[in-house]
Write a structure and sequence with these properties.
By secondary structure, the chain is an all-alpha fold. The chain has helices at about 1-20, 25-40, 75-90. The protein has a domain at about 1-40. Helix 1 crosses helix 2.
């Protein structure tokens, strides 16, 4: 996005220095400047031929995907404390 703003700045600065207070000349600078950049870039354009024809992707997979697991949700602090108390009760401890 900065490139668009920068090019607008250069075009408007060039037009303001060359043709102050002349809107029609500013529009002419925009038109000629844009056309000249596109025309100059045509000399550097290279068309690349495709070596292989398009082929469709297979409709079925060769290797079946494993069943997706639901993400494990982290327990809240009260749930963790309750789990620790249950585990301590199983071990025969009164206060963990």
């Amino acid at each position: 996005m900065a490139g668009f703003g920068l090019s607008a700045f250069f075009f408007s600065a060039l037009a303001a220095m060359a043709f102050p207070d002349n809107t029609s000349k500013f529009l002419l600078v925009l038109a000629v400047g844009t056309l000249s950049m596109i025309t100059a870039s045509l000399f550097f354009l290279r068309v690349v031929q495709h070596s292989a024809a398009y082929s469709a992707l297979p409709t079925q997979e060769d290797h079946p995907r494993p069943a997706s697991r639901q993400s494990e949700r982290r327990k809240s602090i009260p749930q963790r404390r309750a789990g620790i108390k249950e585990h301590a009760a199983e071990l025969g401890m009164d206060n963990p």
